[in-house]
Fold:
Amino acid sequence: QVQLVESGGGLVQAGGSLRLSCAASGRTFSSYAMGWFRQAPGKEREFVATVSWSGFVTSYADSVKGRFTISRDNAKNTVYLQMNSLKPEDTAVYYCAATRDYVNAVVPDTQQYWGQGTQVTVSS
Structure:
């Protein structure tokens, strides 16, 4: 069992930065691929970024590539999402997720655990 708690969301102007954190409970954190997903009002939940259990392999949605960076610290049971050059279209609730389906880690339906979400609002 893994419990995930996100933090770090808020209101920021376009062009600004935010750093999201996701703290995980459980001693098996390092065996999960970790991902960030987001859901805007009226839209489906979408993939943002994922990092392998080792931290060495990352993948990003085209819409955030070059602006967002995902990382993890297995000693602290924490995964991060550094978001730079934020745009109004990045506004959404951001969710942290964990999966052992390494092949399909970018797919929302394959995630085994979800956090409660944190709101990110980017004003123009």
Summary: The chain has no helices and eleven strands. The two ends are 40 Å apart (CA to CA).
